[in-house]
Amino acid sequence: MKISIFGASGYTGGELLRILVNHPGIELSFLTSREYEGKPVHLVHPHLKGLLKSKFSSMSEAMRGDYDLAFLSLPPGISKDLTPKLLEVGIKVVDLSPDFRLKDPELYERWYGWKHPFPDLLERSVYGIPEFNRDVIRHSSLVAAPGCNATSTLLASAPLASLGANRLIADLKVGSSEAGSKPSKGSHHPERSHAIRPYSPSGHRHQAEVEQELRKLNASIKVSIIPHSVGAVRGSFASVYALIDVDEETLWREFAKLYSNEPFIRIMPRGTFPDVKNVIGSNFADLGFSSDEGFGRATGFAAIDNLMKGAAGQAVQCMNLMLGFKETEALLIPPLRP
């Protein structure tokens, strides 16, 4: 199968390449970059030197190409104009931007400040968490892959929603690579190093997609997300709190019911908890839970690598399903340790 990556020079593009260079069923076609067009990929991704001899292409060149699937690793608002053209010529799309994640087109005006021009494609798109939507992803030509904040929140939240929690508070700790390879001053790593500070603590835009997906389990659920910048380079850690009175045995059973057969979900033994250090470089998500029965509080925990299960790894997981490969193909990469 031939694959193209739009926006291949960023961190997520580099991770897609790191995975796909060892995928036995994939041939890389076009790798686009406005800034580095015509230059060798290893100039931007030096860790791939000797593994990949490709050069970056222009977006216009890639739009005229013949291939089977495109990853769109682009800023918000760009994918929505490219996707219809790709679908029209039979190219499947995995979009890593938020342009097709929300089903309600009115939510784009509220959360992103623009009117969505293709509400019909919003109905057609599938939210790209295989643990929730595997069978639909398998038969889809347009998958909207979620980012790290939504992924870690959803994985930690789903068991709580299933147990009847109506209000969830998600406390996130996120590494600096979430801001991309060209961050703002506030998200530049020297500014984040040794820092722990909240950002977008009121009305975080990913709440909309998290609520959308959790309402399949609990129609009345509301979620508040408070992310925090931390000094790590990689990782997204979600602590999701619910004021429900359940014991740890019940929590364990609910996590096991939802995730025990999932190839990339690892449930921590009772009394132990996830750590992003144990998932870095991999597509695994480590989940845990705790119950404060005296207070009436249950908590779900999720640790992921924000560039893997929170971006490129999950996107490849969706691609494998869409193209008929084994879901785990090229993704059973052990985490780095130490």
CATH architectural grouping of the largest domain: 3-Layer(aba) Sandwich
Mean pLDDT: 94
- Count of separate DSSP helical elements: 12
Work out the strand percent: 15-25%
- Helix fraction, binned, reads 25-40%
User: First CA to last CA: what distance?
Assistant: 35 Å
| Largest sheet geometry | 7 strands, mixed
The largest beta-sheet arranges its strands as 8-9-7-10-13-12-11
Protein structure class: alpha/beta
Rough shape? globular
**CATH homology superfamily name of the largest domain:** NAD(P)-binding Rossmann-like Domain
Order of helices and strands: EHEHHEHEHHEHEHEHEHEEHEEEH
CATH-derived topology of the largest domain: Rossmann fold
Number of strands: 13
pLDDT < 50 stretches: none
Overall domain count: 2
CATH secondary-structure class of the largest domain: Alpha Beta
What's the Cα radius of gyration? 19 Å
How would you describe this protein?
It is a single chain. With 338 residues, the chain is an alpha/beta fold. The chain has two domains: 2-146 and 309-323, NAD(P)-binding Rossmann-like Domain (Rossmann fold, 3-Layer(aba) Sandwich); 148-305, Dihydrodipicolinate Reductase, domain 2 (2-Layer Sandwich). The protein contains twelve helices and 13 strands. It has helices spanning 11-20, 41-44, 59-63, 79-88, 106-111, 119-124, 130-138, 148-162, 189-192, 207-214, 248-259, 308-323; strands at 2-6, 27-31, 69-72, 92-95, 126-127, 142-144, 167-174, 197-198, 222-229, 236-242, 265-267, 285-292, 297-304. Strands 8-9-7-10-13-12-11 form a seven-stranded mixed beta sheet. A six-stranded parallel beta sheet has the order 2-1-3-4-6-5, with helices on both faces. Helix 7 (130-138) runs parallel beside helix 12 (308-323) and helix 8 (148-162) runs parallel beside helix 10. The longest helix has 16 residues, at 308-323. The protein is globular and about 60 Å long. The model has no long low-confidence stretch (mean pLDDT 94).
